[in-house]
Every structure is written in C-alpha cells, then in structure tokens.
Design brief:
single chain, about 425 residues, alpha/beta, FAD/NAD(P)-binding domain, 3 domains, five-stranded parallel β-sheet, 31 strands, binds flavin-adenine dinucleotide
C-alpha cells in the first residue's frame, strides 16, 4: 500500500478545509495535504451556482463556483497539495489514516489532522415520510449536482420542502433548469429565510409559501405525481400535483470519520466536541466548518479554517492548551451551541461568536449564560434569532465564567 507523508492532513476540500490549507500553507507549504472524495475541490459552493458567497472572508459577493475556484487557487498558490477522488475511509490507533483513490489504497500518517468534512441534508428516507417511493424526490444537494455539474434540464412543477435560505437556492436552481417551483412548504409560521427572499421569491418565481405545514405522503408510481401536506394548526390536508419534490435543510454533519476515530461527540450537534481553538478530544486532531455547526454560511466555515491554523501550528510547536475545561450547554430554547468547551486563558472562538440553532423566531433576543443557577453574562442582540439559520452571539457573555463551578447553560429568550 502506498504511504503518504504530510505534516498536516486536511480531510475535506470545502471552504473550511481549503481556507485552513491556504493559511497553513504560508508556513508549511507542501507539507499540507488536502484530500477530498469528489472529483473537484471546492465543496458545496461548486454546485451552488448563485451569488451569496464570500462576504465575510473575502469581502466580496461571489457566486458559489467562483468562490470555490478562488479558494482552490489560493490553497494551490500556498504550495499545498490537493488530492481529489480520495476518500478517507479508516483510522487506526497509531494515528494512521487509510484512504482510497482510483490509483489504489494509501496510508497517511500526519502529525496533525483537521476534519473539515461538512454537513449534508437528510434525504427523504431518513425523514421517514410515508407514501410511494417514486423517482423525482431529491435533496438540494442532489438537485444542484444534476443541474450544475451534470447540466440536466428539468421540466414540470416542483414543490420545495423547507423554507430556509437553502430552500430558495433550490428554487433558483429549479427555475434555471426549466421546472416551475410552485410551492415552498415550511412547518414554521413563516418562512425561515430573510424577508429579502420571501417577497421577490413570490413575485419573480410565482412560488407560494405554505406555512405551518408538513408532508404526510409522497404520491406517484415511477415518477412523483403529487405530495400531500397537512396544516398543523387546522389538521386540514391538501394534495399538490408536482413532478419534483425537493427536501431542503434538516442538516446532519458528515461525522462518520469523527465517530470512527472515537472523538468525544456532542449529542446535540452530532459533531465532535471542540473548544474555542477548535481542538477535539484527541490531541493534534482539530475540526472546522459545518462539521461543527450544521449549518452556517460558507464564509463562517472558511473563517474557522483561518482560526484553526494558529492552533495547529502551536500544537506542532509543542504547545498544549490549558487543561481545565468547562462545558457549554443549552436549555430548551436552543438545539445546540458551538463551540461547546471553554478553557481558562484560551483564545476567543472564531469571530468572537458563539453559534446557536433555534426553532423559534425572536426579533431582539437576549442570550443569557448561567452557571450554578446564577446569571454570569447576558447580551441583547440587534439581530433576530430565527429557525433555519445559525444565530450568532458575542462570546463576551462568557467573560465571567468560574472554571471551578461546573457547566455553563445558555438560553435565548
Ligand atoms: C444548496 C446550498 C446553497 C447554499 N448557499 C449558500 C450561499 O449562498 N452563501 C453561503 O455563504 N453559503 C451557502 N451555503 C452553505 C455553504 O455551502 C456551506 O456553509 C459551506 O460549503 C460549508 O463549508 P465546509 O467546508 O464546512 O463543508 P463542505 O462545503 O460541505 O465541504 C466538505 C467536503 O468534505 C468532503 N468529504 C467529506 N467526507 C470526506 C471523506 N471521508 N474523505 C474525503 N473527503 C470528504 C466532501 O466531499 C466535501 O467536498 C449553501 C449550501 C447549500 C447546500
């Protein structure tokens, strides 16, 4: 079996992995190896062909493919090696990783490892939706693969399940491919995406937003012909004729490798637990991007990559983080918080922000940190907390943590 040597191995060439590579490449050059199972590096933005990328990290408003190309170029210019069609499939106790590629299997033994494997939408099967099993039922990722990578044309009507930003991304793709996105169905009282998308969405695409509703049945033999939905307030059911159903959002991190390695996992995010330096429970193994926070935007994932680079270099230089830890937890007002461990005297999290996921819309939320039942910090943000997108709050609410007083519970009210 071929053996590859690299000082740092990065698994996943999406925005997070490529940005970490470009940053580390400035110091380590070709000692940084990035592997990705896809044929082309760039991650999700490669097939998300609409503007909306690069604001926070590149200070530009770019299309997904242009953004992906810029990230690949930057990593290559830093001297980093990128291997595509290479999937990391295994790990052994000595720290060796096994990968497979069209040229065969290989062993990689890095001194430091960064997991940047991203997140994916849960497909229809995993959502346990009753009904027939016809073709034409996709996730946004599958749809965009068909349309933007394989240039397939679609026709007929489409219904989108979910009302997140990514749902509008599906609307754009359907429209571009030749289908008519007739309705967007969300379980929430209003579409989760910004108002900016909802108004023009209806006007430009004729896409009706159906709120407070969920799918009860998929109908069709061979190809989907209709979807049945139920209004959760009235119990009333409605059948919408359609040729395509696209399930959007409902994210799950690509965590198989992290689990296989036996890293401590956070049951809420289903991601490896990390501290503010993005270190996992295994020394020398780091995690970044949407693997940790399923999902935030690409620029936030990319900035994780920048943030982790110094921690990796510190580790390679023999540095160790403070050994005391305090866990961060959420009460029922949020699904998860990331990062989920803090240490005394450690660096602030990336962008000095804690990331949350919530199921309730709050226009001007207050985020509160409690320890031992006592409020130790709180902040009221001028931006809303909303379902379907990450909510970001200043990490300064943790400034008064007592490292001997147990876990910190965070709430959004
Ligand atoms: C339809 C859609 C539209 C979006 N629109 C926007 C937008 O307009 N603006 C915006 O900022 N964000 C948008 N996003 C979100 C953005 O794409 C993500 O935030 C970003 O891609 C996350 O980057 P990442 O590097 O963490 O993960 P990813 O981009 O998912 O990259 C992870 C990479 O890891 C690889 N990988 C996984 N496991 C392995 C393994 N075992 N071995 C080898 N390789 C592996 C995968 O092949 C993949 O290339 C959108 C997302 C979707 C799905």
């Amino acid at each position: 079996m071929k053996e590859l040597n690299s000082t740092v191995l990065i698994v996943g060439a999406g925005p997070a992995g490529l940005t970490a590579a470009a940053e580390l490449g400035k110091t380590l050059g070709d000692q940084v190896l990035v592997v990705d199972r896809e044929a082309t590096a760039g991650g999700i933005p490669r097939h998300s062909d609409h503007p909306g990328y690069g604001l926070r990290d590149r200070k530009r408003f770019m299309s997904g493919p242009a953004y992906a190309r810029a990230l690949v170029k930057e990593a290559e210019q830093a001297g980093v090696t990128i291997l595509t069609r290479t999937q990391v499939t295994g790990f052994d106790e000595s720290g060796q990783l096994e990968a497979t590629s069209p040229t065969g299997r290989m062993i990689i033994s890095p001194k430091a490892l960064i997991l940047a494997t991203g997140a994916r939408e849960r497909p229809r099967m995993a959502r346990r939706i009753p009904g027939d099993r016809p073709g034409g039922v996709l996730t946004t990722g599958q749809l965009q693969n068909m349309v933007h990578l394989h240039h397939e044309k679609l026709s007929g009507r489409a219904v989108i399940i979910g009302g997140e930003l990514v749902s509008w991304s599906a609307v754009l793709t359907l429209k571009e491919a030749g289908a008519k996105p007739v309705a967007l169905v969300t379980k929430y009282p209003k579409s989760e995406s910004y108002r900016l998308f909802r108004g023009p969405g209806k006007l430009l695409f004729g896409t009706k937003v159906i709120t407070n509703s969920f799918v009860t049945r998929i109908i069709g033999k061979g190809q989907v012909s209709a979807v049945e939905i139920e209004n959760s307030a009235t119990g009333q059911r409605e059948t919408i004729e359609t040729d395509w159903v696209v399930f959007t959002g409902d994210w799950v991190p690509d965590h198989e490798l992290a689990r296989m390695m036996g890293l401590d996992m956070d049951p809420a995010t289903k991601s490896p637990k990390v501290d503010t330096g993005l270190r996992t429970s295994k020394p020398g193994t780091f995690a970044i991007g949407n693997l940790l926070h399923p999902v935030d935007t690409a620029d936030v994932a990319a900035l994780d990559g920048k943030h982790v680079a110094n921690q990796v270099l510190a580790y390679l230089g023999g540095g160790t983080p403070p050994s005391d830890t305090v866990d961060l937890e959420v009460d029922s007002s949020a699904r998860w918080v990331s990062p989920n461990i803090i240490r005394p005297g450690d660096i602030s999290p990336s962008r000095e922000r804690l990331l949350f996921w919530t199921d309730t819309y709050i226009a001007r939320p207050t985020v509160e940190a409690r320890q031992g039942g006592k409020v130790i910090g709180s902040v009221r943000t001028s931006w809303p907390a909303a379902p379907g997108r990450a909510f970001r709050a200043p990490s300064s609410i943790l400034d008064k943590v007592d490292y001997g007083a147990g876990p910190v519970t965070l709430s959004i009210t």
